[in-house]
Automatic annotation (TrEMBL):
<dbReference type="GO" id="GO:0001514">
    <property type="term" value="P:selenocysteine incorporation"/>
</dbReference>
<dbReference type="Pfam" id="PF03841">
    <property type="entry name" value="SelA"/>
</dbReference>
<dbReference type="InterPro" id="IPR015421">
    <property type="entry name" value="PyrdxlP-dep_Trfase_major"/>
</dbReference>
<keyword id="KW-0648">Protein biosynthesis</keyword>
<dbReference type="InterPro" id="IPR025862">
    <property type="entry name" value="SelA_trans_N_dom"/>
</dbReference>
<dbReference type="GO" id="GO:0005737">
    <property type="term" value="C:cytoplasm"/>
</dbReference>
<dbReference type="Pfam" id="PF12390">
    <property type="entry name" value="Se-cys_synth_N"/>
</dbReference>
<dbReference type="InterPro" id="IPR015424">
    <property type="entry name" value="PyrdxlP-dep_Trfase"/>
</dbReference>
<keyword id="KW-0711">Selenium</keyword>
<comment type="similarity">
    <text>Belongs to the SelA family.</text>
</comment>
<dbReference type="GO" id="GO:0004125">
    <property type="term" value="F:L-seryl-tRNA(Sec) selenium transferase activity"/>
</dbReference>
<protein>
    <recommendedName>
        <fullName>L-seryl-tRNA(Sec) selenium transferase</fullName>
        <ecNumber>2.9.1.1</ecNumber>
    </recommendedName>
</protein>
<dbReference type="InterPro" id="IPR018319">
    <property type="entry name" value="SelA-like"/>
</dbReference>
<feature type="modified residue" description="N6-(pyridoxal phosphate)lysine">
    <location>
        <position position="284"/>
    </location>
</feature>
<feature type="domain" description="L-seryl-tRNA selenium transferase N-terminal">
    <location>
        <begin position="12"/>
        <end position="51"/>
    </location>
</feature>
<comment type="function">
    <text>Converts seryl-tRNA(Sec) to selenocysteinyl-tRNA(Sec) required for selenoprotein biosynthesis.</text>
</comment>
<dbReference type="InterPro" id="IPR004534">
    <property type="entry name" value="SelA_trans"/>
</dbReference>
Length: 445
């Protein structure tokens, strides 16, 4: 064969034209799903493969199908086999079935700001804030914004722009991804007034600086680290007597105490202790969508609601729907994963390991998302060679025959040179898919 592009045997002469490829019923169906340019790009990629001789011309339709995006967005579902319950890189909390249903319902036109009974405009998000108030006795009012950082910034902007936010030096923290609490607060035009020392702060430290220039006292749960040893802090209960609003940023979003995590603050307790406002994240231990939650005294929450910045931080109907449903759901995956017992996890790990001829080991899972550092969650994992962990990350989505179940992406972890597939965050319903992914990654039939 010569390199002459015009030779009659050259595959380029037989590459089907775009219209011909698009007449394949499967690609015609794809056109009903994806916009024209997406489908055309896939077709032209396949034509390119045929032109270079990489595939025979008859395979262009199949190759075009394979080149289509495997799903509606490029966000790829991942089975979380890391044992980290709130995994930031995996989007924090996986949502409950009920919250997923709510998302689908809310995806269309919904009465998010309409009273269907009267036909009049209603207050946006009222159902979600009512559900929050119902879930937290002691919360007179609630507000939902974009995330925990927004809740904190809105509180600072409303209560302390041009004034001081008094905070213990040991609570001026960096939360993650370079997010430093004091920088966020100062960006609202409030000044940080640090009191006490890194390890010890006393009531008198606060009392000495509180005055007319004080916007609020801020108590921050240091979330991702612990100060141990010679330490002292001031309970919210005592700060509440100083005559200025006390804002407690509890971080992880427990609404009530969680017996498994005695060191994690919760909204109910914080309010009972006298905090005027509590701020928290919706997608950490609450197990809901990304959201910032503000709970507390009605008059203060109303001031936050009326602040111009609130409009820049408001959440959409999808978040409101998922948050409300999370508060109603029987089975919130974050809570379920947190509470799985070592006995249950051992049994599941052994079954999976036996099916694949692998070993199991006792491991400690973690809360993650900056929550409860150093608190081990005893569980079990299947041990795999470390190189298998890498192969597990690649999903096999390009399955076009409809018969082979797609193999999901799996994120496991490597510890002390061993690959660990931790079952804590794996729903039992996903175990067959996990097993299929392991078989493929291990090169087993
Ligand atoms: C996580 C966290 C935040 C930030 O919340 P996001 O929802 O991530 O914006 C603020 N404060 C504390 C104490 C946290 O743990």
């Amino acid at each position: 064969m010569t390199g002459d592009p015009a030779a009659p045997t050259d595959p380029r002469r037989h590459v089907p034209r775009t219209d011909a490829v698009l007449s394949d019923p499967r690609l015609a169906a794809a056109l009903a799903r994806f916009d024209r340019s997406t489908v055309r790009a896939a077709v032209s990629a396949a034509q390119g493969q045929a032109r270079t001789g990489e595939i025979p011309p008859v395979e262009v339709p199949d190759a075009a199908l394979a080149a289509l995006p495997p799903r509606a967005s490029s966000l790829t579902p991942v089975l979380n086999a890391t044992g980290v319950v709130v995994h930031t890189n995996l989007g924090r909390a996986p949502l409950s079935t009920l919250a997923r249903e709510a998302l689908l319902d809310a995806a269309g036109a919904v009465d998010v700001e309409l009273d269907l009974a009267t036909g009049r405009r209603s207050r946006r998000g009222v159902a979600a804030t009512t559900a929050l108030r119902d879930a937290v006795p002691g919360a007179e009012s609630a507000l939902v914004v974009n995330n925990g950082a927004a809740a904190l910034a809105l509180a600072a902007a409303t209560l302390a722009t041009g004034k001081e936010v008094v905070v213990s030096r040991g609570q001026v923290v960096e939360i993650g991804d370079g997010f430093r609490l004091h920088e966020l607060i100062e960006s609202t035009g409030a000044r940080i007034r640090e009191v006490g020392t890194t390890n010890r702060t006393h009531l008198r430290d606060y009392a000495e600086v509180v005055g007319p220039q004080t916007g609020c006292i801020l108590v921050v749960h240091p979330s991702n680290f612990r100060v141990e040893g010679f330490t002292a802090g001031v309970p919210v209960r005592e700060l509440a007597g100083l005559g200025v609003p006390v804002v407690h940023d509890i971080g992880s979003g427990l609404l009530a105490p969680e017996p498994l995590l005695p060191g994690e603050p919760d909204a109910r307790t914080a309010l009972a202790e006298g905090a005027d406002l509590v701020t928290a994240s919706g997608d950490k231990l609450l197990g809901g969508p990304q959201a910032g939650i503000v709970l507390g005294r009605a008059e203060l929450v109303e001031r936050l609601r009326r602040h111009p910045l609130q409009r820049a931080m408001r959440v959409d109907k999808l978040t409101l729907a998922a948050l409300e449903a999370t508060l109603r759901a029987a089975d919130v995956p974050v809570t379920t994963a947190l509470r799985r017992t070592p006995a249950e996890l051992e049994q599941r790990a052994r079954r999976l390991a036996d099916a694949l001829g692998l070993a199991v080991t006792a491991v400690d899972g973690r809360v993650g998302g900056g929550g409860a550092p150093g608190v081990p969650l005893p569980g079990w994992a299947v041990v795999v060679p470390p190189e298998v962990v890498e192969r597990l990350r690649t999903p096999d989505a390009a399955v076009v025959d409809g018969a082979t179940p797609p193999v999901p992406a799996v994120l496991a972890r490597i510890e002390d040179g061993r690959g660990l597939v931790d079952l804590r965050c794996i729903d039992p319903a996903d175990e067959p898919a996990l097993e299929a992914a392991l078989r493929r990654a291990l090169g087993r039939p």
